[in-house]
Amino acid sequence: MHRLVALVSAVVLSACGSQAKPDAVADEAGTGKAQPVSLPAAAATPNLAACPARASVDEGLRQRNAPIAVPAALRAAMRSDMDNFALSTLDGATVCVDASWMESIRDPALSPDGRFASFGWDGYESYGHVIVDRSGTGQVVDTGVPPVASPSGKLLAAADLSESGFGALNAFAVWQIEPAGLRRLTSQEDLLEATDWRIEDWLGEACVNLTAVPWDSSGAANPPRERFRARASNGWRFEPGRCGDA
Predict the structure, then answer these.
(1) Could you read off the pLDDT of 200-217 as tens digits, one per residue?
(2) Where are the domains of the chain?
(3) Residues 57, 58, 61, 67: is their CA dihedral positive or negative?
(4) Which of 22, 70, 126, 186 is the most buried (most CB within 10 A)?
(5) What is the pLDDT of residues 65-79, one digit of tens each?
(6) Gap between the Cα atoms of 101 and 157, Å rounded
(7) What are the CB-based long-range contacts (under 8 Å, 24+) for 183-187?
(8) Residues 19/1, Cβ–Cβ less than 8 Å
């Protein structure tokens, strides 16, 4: 939950810290429910007809027989059919998300300025976390899991690393929020003989603290977590230790 709120905080370049429910991001009335978001008139209605046809899903790999319902938090910006989500850009164009393999979505959020829409999704032996940047011509990024924002909110990091490889990202990655779009700064898939990778926090703008469970301890009831860091000065590569250590 904290990580989803971190994303929407990032678009206004502020540090995350709220534990509010994702649907309450745009809740000015304090009800805990998503409230209508005022968007530019040109961005009011996305065009599903502009989305591409998707490849047929093999029988049995998709259980639903109807489009995924658009949640209230995204209703001002998104439409759906069996294979696509269509979202309007802030300039009135349409950006499309491939929903053909998705069974359901969760934790929807729209940033206060309307620029970013985000949601988690689940499918057949798969999952992910989609961020749609509605600036410019629009951009779709799947971070696998909700990203964690740096203190300034200008950088996002996500650690979606597991032995199963079911996550849409299946890597550790860092993105920079540009005036239009997200730019990936790094991506690595090395598990380092560990699993259950987790971002703990940032130290400044140039170092991410992570923990993971060693493979030889993964079956324990309360397995120990080893500490790692990823520093910009080292190309954001994993290394043992904590940010701030020598």
Answers:
(1) 999 999 999 999 998 888
(2) 2-189, 190-246
(3) positive
(4) 22
(5) 999 999 999 999 999
(6) 25
(7) 185/155, 185/232, 185/236, 186/235, 186/236, 186/237
(8) yes
